[in-house]
Design brief:
It is a single chain. The protein is mainly β. The chain has a single domain, classed as Lipid/polyisoprenoid-binding, YceI-like (Lipocalin), CATH 2.40.128. Strands 1, 2, 3, 4, 5, 6, 7, 8 and 9 form a nine-stranded antiparallel sheet that branches. A hairpin with a 2-residue loop joins strand 5 and strand 6. It starts with a strand and ends with a strand. The mean pLDDT is 92. This is Lipid/polyisoprenoid-binding YceI-like domain-containing protein. InterPro entries: Lipid/polyisoprenoid-bd_YceI, TTHA0802/YceI-like_sf.
């Protein structure tokens, strides 16, 4: 078995949230994590996200950006004062040509739901490089603000239920 420890300072997670009249983008940091391999095949792993590290990249006005960040940290969205981390636990990985179909359990705000996504993984001796994208339905994690599922007639105030995390993970073999 080989275990690659995720290097938070070298890894990136970008987020995108869409609404009727546009979108917002930003980043969020990985706190810790690892990916496990058996005979060079991905078998499991865990990624912990630091929810207090949310950054907004598309709003240049400092006051508007801070107001939006405060709203994301509030109970309408991520409740970061109470839930400081989110976690993905990989429960299964199936290799398809050069990529993996990953299934796992994603926990946000102490609510866990299954997720699946495609990722590419390359191993270079003692280093790992993984790229992928996860689409998450925020309403499954009790984030109903601006959702057409729960609030009718929102018009141009509607916020899409799905948000996207694009990630690049860099890992180092922790069991050479």
């Amino acid at each position: 078995m080989t275990k690659f420890s995720i290097q938070p300072e070298s890894s990136t997670v970008n987020w995108t949230g869409k609404k009727i009249l546009g979108l917002h983008t930003g980043t969020i940091s990985i706190e810790s994590g690892y990916l496990s391999f058996e005979n060079e095949d991905l078998t499991g792993g865990e990624i912990v996200i630091d929810m207090k590290s949310i950054i907004i990249t598309d709003i240049k006005d400092p006051k508007i950006s801070q107001d939006f960040l405060d709203h994301l940290n509030h109970d309408d969205f991520f409740s970061t004062h109470q839930f400081k981390t989110a976690k993905l636990v990989i429960t299964h990985a199936e290799k398809t040509e050069e990529k993996y179909k990953i299934t796992g359990d994603l926990t946000i705000k102490d609510i866990t739901n299954p997720v699946s996504f495609i990722t590419s993984v390359e191993i270079f001796t003692d280093f790992l490089h993984a790229l992928g994208e996860i689409v998450i339905d925020r309403t499954l994690y009790n984030m109903k603000y601006g959702s057409g599922k729960f609030l009718p007639n929102l018009g141009d105030k509607l916020i899409h239920d799905d948000f996207v995390l694009q990630f690049k993970l860099i890992g180092q073999n922790s069991m050479p």
